[in-house]
Amino acid sequence: MRQQASNIALIAILILPLTSLAQYHYDSTAAAAKQKAPKKEHHIIGIGVKAGLNFANVTSASDINASSHTGFNAGIFFSPPGKLMGSYTELAFSQQGFDYSTGQNNSSLKLNYLSLEQLMAINITKYVQIQLGARTAYLLNAKTDSTTHTTGTDSAYNAYGGSLLSFFNRIDYGVVGGVEIHPVLGLVIGARYNLSLSSLYKNAFSSFGGTGSGSGSGSMSINPKNNVIQLYTGWRF
């Protein structure tokens, strides 16, 4: 009986270290596998969609009391993941224009553009991105709305009948700067400023009497440029 108890105790003494060793090996293997497993990145492709508001106005148009016009922007973009610096390409629809008054008139000029932006992206941590670059846009259509009878600028517009686009340069180009925040997963929130370097009209526009040099009593020659502040949100896949 004592011999049997001694044998059992001896077997337990031999098995216990082996059990502990096996458990240690399992824990070590599991920990190593967990460490070696690559962390899944959400931003793999970098393709995204965005939409937001435009607060559009024009420069060099104080003579017609130009004020901001609200529209919207929507588009797609490609921003591949990078460490410090990368690229950002965007194709978007943009509603622009301005509201204006010329004495007896309160009117609104609405311009719709298809724009292509090529930007340099500077990543400040993974949450903030600074964007700088250039923008080229094509004017799709133009429309004026007047709240009173038409005189001045509106009569000049109407003289073209259905060819309002004949007034404008169809190609618009300029510089862009902005900041984008990536708070969680693929969510993006951004603000951007677009400043055009090209003139809005083909020729200087007179607020009292059509296009031309603006000569004559009471005429004011203007040839403004677009400038737009954009606020937007979107998702990057």
UniProtKB/TrEMBL annotation:
* Residues annotated as domain Outer membrane protein beta-barrel: 43-201
Indicate the secretion signal residues: 1-22
Signal listed as a keyword: yes
Name of the protein described by the UniProt record? Outer membrane protein beta-barrel domain-containing protein
Q: Which keywords describe this protein according to UniProt?
A: Signal
Entry-linked InterPro entries: Beta-barrel_OMP_2
Read off the Pfam families from this record: OMP_b-brl_2 (PF13568)
